[in-house]
Specification:
The longest helix has 22 residues, at 43-64. The protein starts with 13 loop residues before the first helix and ends with a helix. It has helices at 14-20, 22-38, 43-64, 69-78. It contains four helices and no strands.
Length: 81
């Protein structure tokens, strides 16, 4: 999507790590900002989210009944049933 950055820093060495990896941090940050501005559509991500919601989250919330009454009320207002 917009890149990734993995950093391993010592316990008290955050500032030193930032100085050493500043170029990478700036590049990934700018890539992330461009992705937000473009609002690029990722169809595979949408399909995965659909399945996670409809096969995982939604049945779980419905099964719990009154424990998730607030969530179910919000879903009713949004037309999600």
């Amino acid at each position: 999507m917009s890149g990734q950055l993995r950093i391993q820093a010592g316990f008290n060495d955050l500032e030193g790590m930032i100085r050493k990896r500043k170029g990478e941090i700036d590049y990934v940050s700018q890539s992330f900002i461009r992705a937000i501005k473009r609002r690029q559509y990722y169809p595979i991500q949408s399909i995965i989210h659909f399945f996670i919601f409809h096969l995982g989250i939604k049945p779980f919330v419905k099964k719990k009944g009154t424990l998730y009454q607030g969530v179910r009320g919000k879903w009713s207002k949004l037309g999600i049933t």
